[in-house]
Write a structure and sequence with these properties.
mainly beta; binds zinc ion
């Protein structure tokens, strides 16, 4: 899966704040993601994050 810095990931599972959207702050073995709802940052295993992705947005355009 092609995920780049500053992509917006829409997840299947919502964050407790109610938002499904996360900004990618770091890519690698793990992703650093920032919740667009509450600003909370998490580190998550790439494999786990990919399983939870519903759609990806880059520069305002939906990729999938
Ligand atoms: Zn949140």
């Amino acid at each position: 899966m092609d995920i780049r810095l500053h992509d917006i990931l829409t997840m299947k599972k919502a964050h407790p704040c109610g938002s499904h959207d996360w900004e990618v702050l770091r890519v690698g073995m793990d992703f650093r993601l920032k919740c667009r709802g509450c600003g909370h940052e998490i580190m998550v295993e790439r494999r786990k994050a990919e399983k939870n992705i519903k759609s990806i947005e880059r520069e305002g355009q939906k990729l999938c």
